[in-house]
Each structure stands twice: as structure tokens, then as C-alpha cells.
Amino acid sequence: MAHILSEGFDWAANSSDLAVRWNAGTGGSPSTTTAFGTGRSWIPSGTPIIDLGVNYSEIFGSVRVRCDGTDRAFLYFYDGGTQQVSLRIDTATGTTSLRRGNQDGTTIGSVYGPISAFWQSWQFRIVFHNTTGVFELRRNGATTNMISLSGQNTRSTANNYFNRFGFACTNTCYIDDIWLNDTTGASNNSWCGDIRVITQVPTGAGSSTQFTPSTGSNWQCVDDMPNNGETDYVQSSTVGHKDLYAMSALGSTAGTIRGVNVFGMVKKMDAGARTAGIRHVSGATESTLVSSDALSSSYMLMSSHQALDPNTGLAWTQSGVESQQIGPIVVA
What we know:
It is a single chain. The protein has 332 residues and is mainly beta. The chain has helices at residues 15-21, 318-323; strands at residues 3-7, 28-31, 41-44, 49-56, 58-67, 72-79, 82-90, 95-100, 107-112, 120-127, 133-139, 147-152, 162-169, 173-181, 202-209, 212-213, 234-235, 243-247, 260-266, 276-282, 285-291, 300-306, 325-330. It contains two helices and 23 strands. Strand 10 and strand 11 (133-139) form a beta hairpin. The radius of gyration is 20 Å and the shape is globular. The mean pLDDT is 94.
């Protein structure tokens, strides 16, 4: 499994958009206040929660947070509907702590560190267990721990795992650059460091243009960030038809590239069964990364994570990321 979740929020124009991916409590709004002056962060007013679909007994993660004034941000790790533990980032007390249960539960471990109105990136490791649980915390990509605790009770249910993830805040906190991975697989199986999620969008036509645009050029109908709903779009009813698009530059000199997440928002516009997919080209390698279930008349989000460049079988390079082509395909 390795990579579990990454989220940069650039794609979501409003809470309805966020609800396409996040399953519950998706109140809040996007903000152009970010650590790097581009893209978007999210200000939650509810508790966005995502079902991960797998039980994880150990997790590594990173999140970028800015809390103004005496506000607090919370990360929740659920077993079903119950919070196993909560990571509480608290500018009122200047502490970051892991709590059993919700954000006001028993403190497992705490360190000083949060600063009001400053962006900080927090990395964490949690092992879920009632007697041998582990909590380790780092900040801003450091390679040594601020806190290292073992032999802890890091669960609230009878199970030594979590399977849902959520976040919330009091008043105004900005959440960005979420990353989660477990310990399996050949890559992304330990500390991830200070992660930045950068969103690419189409900037031109690729090697295939077979869909029909609602207006203008095909790639210009899908280049909006955040997405603009049905202001413009591409469509096709012909099985095998595909569009491919050249993608934007990363906008900065990338460090270690942990992977590429490919997303597509799709729906059907007529009766009958329809299935779509995401087509991907890297160098000489072309493939359909993911196919949808039977489409409905409401938008669904397809996604696929590529930890390695499928053309080389090696870690992504910046040039490889920037030269890939991505687009939709009609599968059935």
C-alpha cells in the first residue's frame, strides 16, 4: 500500500466539491492563504472525514497548518465512528499533543511548538495499540524527533488500527499538504518529510484529441483550478475515445518527488451504463490507470497514485512529471 492519502485542496471550489472525495462533515471553504503563495488551503467549519477502506495499525504522515490567534487544529484518526486518537495543534497553549479519543481526551504526549499566524509542517508516526502504542513527532522536515513515546495506549476501541481520517479546527485555521503512508511497499514506507502537494493542470493538447469540447479547445475545457463545474467540459459516447493533455510545470525546483496522484471528475450525461477511465502517458509507456464503477449523473472523483514513473520503474524526476500526458478515456 505505502501511500494512503495526499490532499492539497487546490481542486475544490467549495464544500460541495470537497464532498465528492471527503465523505462526511465537509463544511468549510477554500482559501488562497497558503505557505507558498500559490494554490489553496482549506478552512474547515465542520469535520471533513475520508474513509480509507483499509485498517492501518501504523501510520506516518505530514500536514501543514497555520492557526491564527488562539485557535486550534485537530487531526482525527477513527476506527469507524470512534476517534482512536487526535493530534491537537494548539496556539492558545503553544503545544502540540496526541490525545486518546477526541481533542480533549487524555494526553498521551505533548511538546511546545505551535506559533500563531505562522505556517508549520508537522510530521508524525503513530502505532495503534492498547499497550505498545507509539507516538513520535517532528516539525518542518527535521530528521530527529521532538517527542518519542512507546509503550502507550493509542486506541479508544477494542481494535489496534484506524480506518478513517478527518480534520477540524476552532475559528480560523488553515489546513494544507496532507500526506499519509503506512510501512508497506518498496517506497513511501517511513518518514515522508515536509511534504508539499503541487497541482498540475492541462496547458495544451497532447497526442490524442477525440472528445468533443463544450467550447473552444479540448484542453481549455479542463484546465480550471479550482474546477468550474459545467461552465466548460469535454464529452464522448464512443468506446475507446481518449483525450490526452500536456501538463503544467511544477512551478518550483522539486526535491524528492514522492509520487504522482492523477485525478478526474466524471459523470454520465445520458441513459444506459457508462464507464470511464484515466489515461496516462509517460515516455513510451501508455496505460489506463484507473477505471470507474458504473457512472451516475452526479460527479465522481477517480484517482490513481503512481509512486514510481511507469516508464522507468524508478522515482519520478521533475522532467518526467512535467512531460507526462493525462486525460479521460471512454472504457465502456
